[in-house]
Design goal:
The complex is a heterodimer of chains A (246) and B (788).
Chain A: E1 15-28, E2 31-44, E3 48-52, H1 59-66, E4 74-79, E5 82-83, H2 89-99, E6 100-103, H3 115-123, H4 132-138, H5 154-166, E7 172-176, H6 184-201, E8 204-209, E9 220-225, E10 228-234
Parallel strand pairs in A: 3-8, 3-9, 6-7, 7-8
Antiparallel strand pairs in A: 1-2, 1-4, 4-5, 9-10
Helix pairs in contact in A: 3-4, 3-5, 4-5, 5-6
Chain B: H1 3-14, H2 16-53, E1 59-67, H3 70-75, E2 80-86, E3 88-94, E4 102-109, E5 121-125, E6 135-139, H4 140-145, E7 153-158, E8 161-172, E9 192-198, H5 199-205, E10 211-219, H6 225-236, E11 245-246, H7 251-291, H8 294-303, H9 307-347, H10 359-386, H11 389-393, H12 405-408, H13 417-428, H14 430-468, E12 473-482, H15 484-490, E13 495-510, E14 513-522, E15 531-532, E16 538-539, E17 546-549, H16 550-557, E18 564-569, E19 576-585, E20 593-596, H17 597-603, E21 609-617, H18 622-630, E22 635-640, H19 641-695, H20 700-736, H21 750-776, H22 780-785
Helix pairs in contact in B: 1-9, 2-7, 2-9, 2-10, 2-19, 7-10, 7-14, 7-19, 9-10, 9-19, 13-20, 14-19, 14-20, 14-21, 19-20, 19-21, 20-21
Chain lengths: 246, 788
Amino acid sequence: MTCRHIPYHSDMTQTIFSAQGLTKVYPMGEVTVQALRGVDLLLSAGELVVLLGPSGSGKSTLLNILGGLDTATSGTVRYRDLDLSKASDKELTNYRRHHVGFVFQFYNLIPSLTVRENVAAVTEIARAPMRPEEALERVGLGHRLDHFPAQLSGGEQQRVAIARAIAKNPAVLLCDEPTGALDSQTGVVVLEALEKVNRELGTLTVLITHNAGIADMADRVIRLFDGRIVEERRNSTKKSAKELSW
Amino acid sequence: MTALDKKLLRDLWLMRGQVLAIAAVIMGGVATLVMALSTYDSLLTTRDRFYRDYGFGQVFASLKRAPESLAGRLADVPGVATLETRVVTLAKLEVPGFADPAVGMIASLPDHGAPRLNRLHLKRGRLPAPYSENETVVSDTFADAHKLNPGDRIGAIINGKRQTLILSGVALSPEYVYQIAPGAMFPDFQRYGVLWMGRHALAMANNMNGAFNNVSATLTPGTKPQAVIDRIDELLAAYGGIGGYSREYQFSNRFLSEELKQLKTTATLFPAIFLGVAAFLLNVVVSRMIATQRDQIAILKAFGYGDLMIGAHFLKMVLVIALLGVSMGIALGAWFGVSLSHVYMNFYRFPYLDYVLRPMVFVIALAVAGIAAASGTLLTVGRAMRLPPAEGMRPDTPEVYRTTLIERIGLQRWFSQPSRMILRHIERRPWKAMLTILGIACACGLMMVGDYQRGAVEYMLDVQFNRSAREDLAVTFTDPTAIGALHEIASLPGVRRVEGFRDVSANLRFDQHKYRAALYGIEPDGILHHALDTDLNAVRVPPGGVVLTDHLAERILHVRPGDTLTIELLEGNRRVIEVPVLGITKQYLGVSAYMQRDTLNRLLREGDVISGVYLSHDPGAEAGIYKRLQARPRVLGQVAHANAIRSFNATMGEFVLFFNMISALLAASIAFGVVYNSARIALSERGRELASLRVLGFSRAEIGYILLGELGTLTLAAIPVGFLVGIGLCGVLVLSFNSELYRLPLVLEPYNYAMAASVVLGSAVVSGLLAWRSLGKLDLVAVLKTRE
């Protein structure tokens, strides 16, 4: 069964990701960096998970491996029935195209495309996407469809990136420091958008941050340090994004 | 339109400077291809149509004199379709207001109606009236050179008798597309012309009533010319026939074919060089441009775009650029082609020009540019795609820099910090630096190729006229003449020195190789006219044998000194003799066989006889000498070297100027394309670094120095490499332009180097200024905040 035929949405109990013994070693110039040193992890549908940790703790590496942007040096990671650690380039491409939405710290919008077109670049190749306008409505940018990225504030750019990520109706939304480049007020607006998507669409949302304040909005918080998971807890009471501050 | 296509269009617009620079490189290559091929095709098509429409003969023969009754027997030779006899003669011409000696070739026209072969294309006026005594049609070159029109009069001394001729018309003939006086090196339209008169009038003047001295014929389809020539030669042998020849050896056609052959070489060689260089640059430039889009490739990949889609996207991008370059190249090349064809038509006289631009040329241009662009793109895109997207989006890890060799050997104190940055950057990526150097060097080399011919031709003329043929004037007689004539000419006022020569047409044979050439008997101790050894020093022709031009010996006859050459003399007793080859001489223009005059006279079993005289004279004495010689009935032609060189320079000048202009333009476009793109790419690759320096307090001039200093260093390093490339390319040209008409010497003058270096430096400065402007627009804050 290829990943193409995996259903998009499922109830909370369904396991989406399962990882065992993940390690990752980077050559960096003349030295090597051990980014992950054996990570085990289970993530379920509909969860909002915050990966917490200082810079260099391996959280981005973990997220990239979950998103099929990078491959682990050893260990296995599965997305439902698909073994991402053994997937071919083509399978990874399909996986990213139909199942994963990314939000990056620096937005990574295509500067030569308008807001609407940036979203369309994704919906054009997805199987059952929402309309770009709808995705942008959801993040509160229905009125700035024809602006270019350079004409938007940082928070607005990040919300475009979120709209772009959710427009394909992904099963997973992976966000790497989505508020890292934003002030706290703007950051809250972005987090509200993410929260809304998680709630309304039931998308498994994994959010990386080194900002402990954000962790309160998660269902589950996983803390990484030096390439290992050092703490894992469930929030008994989830705060809404609006209540957060840092 | 998909979002990606919109991105494509906007990116192209954003990079328009770079796009244009790359397109300029392609344009240069394609324009050369289109220009050369279309000129070649056009001249070929025009020639063939002219030959066909005007009944150009396929077999020709000259003889002393035969009765017209022989014509029927000649026409009955199997394989002959149409045969026509004529009277053809050389005459001295006098044009009012023109003091120099001029010679005309006068051919007869039938007294009634148009000739069946070698028909004239009348540009102005009409054919001579039937049985007119003094009406003549003049070739358009001669008419134009003297501004003659129907109704004007010129004097002609035909067979020793002076006549006044009235121009009835001005015409072109397929037989005289290229006009050059017998014995001359270059066309001289003022001093040589072709005239046509009624058969009756011309025959009367030449004692040829009821007789002819020239035959031309066309053949039935499928006939081999040689069989017909052999039969005609047999029939004419008793009438002083000097051997028939096919169209292939017909003088004008031979020159034209040779020129077309060389043009074809040009049409393949030059574009191959230009397009090859352009393809190489395109590949480099495109791959570097794509490399700057590395993070965009990563994003698209993260979205789930497949390799094919991303490949297709960038492929589309470069193909748009390639298409732009090809379109500009075709337009420019077609324009150059039309201009060049018209320049050629100054030498080669056609009544019309059929400009041909074959669709195949488009296909070749598109294919070469497309493949070059696509391979550069796909390789780079492929490399970018192999990178996991996460890595593509991450800022590059700091590059591993080292102290440079210069620093390691302890010279760093001579270099400022920015200079050290430049050196380290170059040393860090030697491959990239080398490609840039090679690209600029190619532009420099191409410029040298374009400019080289001027110097080579000057050198050729210098060797010919200042070392080998140093006489001021070469005088030819109507018939071989006793040596007394030499002394008479020596006694003319102003004449300094005279040397007699004997020349005779001959077939030279060695094994299966055969060549028809003029065999020159010269004075062994001559000062004015001598053969040159391979070091271009005067060499004494030894007695009892023959010395041959290197090209004739090595490339045509395949003989070496010591071999025995068979010579069929085509004059006088028409003996077949065997003589040893005694040496090889160097000559760039034409090919010759030299003997001592005594030896040649003896072989011809004649006395002390000369065909003409080489003479030198006091400065300013020429007018008097021309006049006195012109008045002598036995003197047929006078060729003054000064005039020859002058007229050559006048006609060649336009040619050379045209080529220089085009090659400068193309080389400049290539140099600009390379340097400008290098600057733009360096700017996008190092924008962050440079902006950081600006933030740290560096001035625009200082970061400009870091960016442009590197390009300047590479450009300067590229120039000597470019000189080597240029010498190599000129060498290729020399090898491929090797013909019996001329061989180009491989000489490069200081100005060739200077010109090439100037064009490259000029383009570099312009690119540098444009990059300097972009440096001013560097957005310091934005560049530091985001990576893009």
